[in-house]
């Protein structure tokens, strides 16, 4: 643990002092790596380039690229220099990126080497959002010195090369003067703006301060017992709060290593765990379902060849963490049965800088279907004008040092989100007598069928019990008689099939008749957010498109 830090720049300097040439982050498939001291050197040099190009403390800069040394260095360099990082997916469309660029009042973009041409082309297109295309004043290449590892079995020892490209915007109406100041950043200074996936309307910019981020790093460290001996595997994108805070900033705070491939690969996952001696990984239910469908390593029990191979494949892995959406109980139970490792279900939101609650590690008690207990935050459930009783469902409210400072340039939404000092998450849940939180759905996702309020998550849990189901989500769709009716979208694991009698039998065994989906859709490309979470509300649009083609419900 590190103490008395004011901002991320302090953290980078402390880690360089204490960690020195120890490896902080490595790319398992290229062998490229960055030490703690190397990060401090890179952050300093990138900060100088930014200053030379007129960027100063408080300026917003979009940052994009695939996961790895370059993108991590870009984000941390911006924070270290007191600028505000605005991470965005490099795969975002021109209009999506243009909206964030304009709304954040950004003064430039810092992207991984080789992406500048693709991004400028997207943003220069005539259809790049309101106001047409966006022009750039120039491009500046920034070379990053990084080590090349010999031990992962890839690359050659010596010095590797990574790079960034700074894109300076031409004069635009939103470009005012920089928010520069002589004194260093303080905990309340803005560090990051993360744009939510925007399942309804335009995405909102969540403002996270240096204090928010450091508080959340402490919460993650405490919840998972992280030490400098740990090694995290980061397979989640850095433009999402889970990947950014839990598996980049928290390891930096603790002083442990991060193994960061360019993207998630089911076929490479267990190889990374074994070869890089990973001790923990943070994932989302979609990823865990994909890995389960493709087959898990054998549990290392007993003696003999099978036990030896199982132990080798799992390496030093001590737990798997799941967050971003509810993990089906059937999935977590299968992991623990097959691997003999704890699967730690957590609950996090962007507005809390990620983690809100988590199930504790052994010997602490993990409760199936629960998102766990709070670490560093206060959590309450509200019903009507007061707090809900034990076991009563209501809206989840939170408060604490990691809770965000508001929505960027949206005072109305900020004001509506807080009630009496509590941030109202929009999630529905209940607390049991031990303080464990059980989530039951989203306020806006509840299905209202003839006055019966139904949680789609309850139905999802049943669908995941069906053998061969890789992903499942149900949603309420318009219906003339009932107001809303339930339909389900399923994708099966490769090579799997399912018969209607099996589907019917499982649903009837676990659900009341009015909760059983009235139509099932298979094999469709389901809309997902940056974390891989299925965007349930967008499934309504998918259904309406199918209904127009005659594939909707028959009344």
Q: Which second-level CATH architecture of the largest domain applies?
A: 3-Layer(aba) Sandwich
Q: State the helical fraction.
A: 25-40%
User: How much of the sequence is in beta strands?
Assistant: 25-35%
Total helical segments: 15
Task: Note down, in words, how this protein is organized.
- This protein is α/β, with parallel strands linked by helices and 555 residues long.
- The chain starts with 7 loop residues before the first helix and ends in a 7-residue tail after the last helix.
- The chain has a 14-stranded mixed sheet, with helices on both faces.
- The protein is built from 15 helices and 28 strands.
- Strand 21 and strand 22 form a beta hairpin.
- The longest helix is centred in the first third of the chain and has 17 residues, at 36-52.
- Helices cover 30% and strands 27% of the residues.
- It has three domains: 31-209, Rossmann fold (3-Layer(aba) Sandwich), CATH 3.40.50; 264-442, 3-Layer(aba) Sandwich (Rossmann fold), CATH 3.40.50; 446-548, ANL, C-terminal domain (GMP Synthetase, Chain A, domain 3, 2-Layer Sandwich).
Short structural description:
The protein contains 15 helices and 28 strands. Helix 1 crosses helix 3 (69-80) and helix 2 (36-52) packs across helix 3.
Relevant terms:
GMP Synthetase, Chain A, domain 3; 28 strands; alpha/beta; 555 residues; 30% helix; 14-stranded mixed β-sheet; six-stranded antiparallel β-sheet; 3 domains; Rossmann fold; globular
């Amino acid at each position: 643990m590190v103490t008395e830090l004011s901002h991320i720049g302090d953290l980078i300097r402390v880690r360089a002092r204490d960690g020195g040439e120890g490896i902080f982050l490595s790319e398992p498939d290229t062998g490229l790596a960055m030490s703690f001291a190397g990060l401090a050197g890179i952050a300093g040099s990138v900060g100088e380039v930014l200053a030379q190009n007129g960027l100063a403390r408080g300026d917003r800069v979009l940052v994009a690229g695939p996961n790895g040394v370059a993108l991590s260095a870009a984000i941390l360099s911006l924070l270290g220099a007191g600028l505000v990082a605005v991470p965005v997916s490099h795969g975002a469309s021109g209009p999506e990126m243009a909206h964030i660029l304009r709304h954040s009042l950004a003064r430039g973009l810092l992207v991984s080497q080789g992406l500048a041409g693709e991004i400028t082309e997207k943003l220069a297109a005539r259809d790049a959002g309101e106001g047409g295309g966006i022009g750039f004043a120039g491009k500046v290449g920034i070379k990053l010195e990084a080590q090349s590892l010999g031990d992962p079995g890839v690359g050659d020892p010596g010095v590797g090369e990574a790079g960034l490209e700074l894109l300076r915007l031409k004069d635009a109406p939103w470009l005012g003067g920089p928010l520069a100041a002589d004194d260093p950043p303080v905990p309340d200074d803005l560090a990051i703006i993360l744009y939510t996936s925007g399942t309804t309307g335009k995405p909102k910019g969540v403002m996270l301060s240096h204090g928010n981020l450091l508080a959340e790093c402490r919460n993650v460290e405490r919840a998972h017992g992280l030490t400098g001996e740990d090694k995290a595997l980061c397979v989640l994108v850095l433009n999402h709060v889970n990947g950014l805070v839990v598996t980049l900033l928290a390891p930096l705070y603790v002083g442990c290593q991060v193994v960061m491939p360019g993207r998630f690969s089911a076929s490479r996952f267990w190889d990374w765990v074994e070869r890089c001696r990973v001790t923990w990984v943070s994932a989302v239910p979609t990823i865990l379902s994909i890995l389960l469908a493709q087959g898990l390593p054998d549990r290392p029990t007993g003696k003999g060849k099978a036990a030896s191979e199982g132990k080798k494949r799992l390496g030093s892995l001590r737990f798997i963490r799941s967050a971003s959406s509810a993990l089906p109980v059937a999935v977590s139970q299968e992991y623990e049965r097959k691997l003999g490792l704890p699967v730690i279900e957590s609950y996090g939101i962007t507005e809390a800088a990620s983690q809100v609650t988590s199930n504790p590690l052994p010997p602490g008690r993990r409760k199936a279907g629960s998102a766990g207990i709070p670490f560093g935050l206060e959590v309450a459930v509200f019903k009507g004008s007061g707090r809900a009783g034990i076991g009563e469902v209501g809206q989840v409210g939170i408060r604490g040092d990691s809770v965000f400072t508001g929505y960027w340039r949206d005072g109305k939404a900020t004001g509506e989100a807080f009630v009496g000092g509590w941030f109202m998450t929009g999630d529905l849940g209940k607390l049991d007598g031990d303080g464990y939180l059980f989530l039951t759905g989203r306020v806006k996702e509840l299905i209202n069928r003839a006055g019966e309020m139904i949680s789609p998550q309850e139905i999802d849990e049943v669908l995941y019990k069906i053998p061969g189901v890789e992903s499942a989500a149900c949603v309420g769709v318009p219906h003339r008689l009932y107001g809303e009716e339930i339909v389900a979208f399923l994708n099966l694991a490769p090579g799997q099939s399912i018969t209607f009698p099996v589907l019917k039998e499982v649903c009837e065994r676990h659900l009341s008749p009015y909760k059983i989906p009235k139509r099932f859709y298979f094999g469709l490309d389901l809309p997902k957010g940056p974390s891989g979470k299925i965007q349930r509300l967008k499934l309504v649009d998918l259904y309406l498109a199918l209904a127009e083609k005659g594939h909707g419900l028959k009344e």
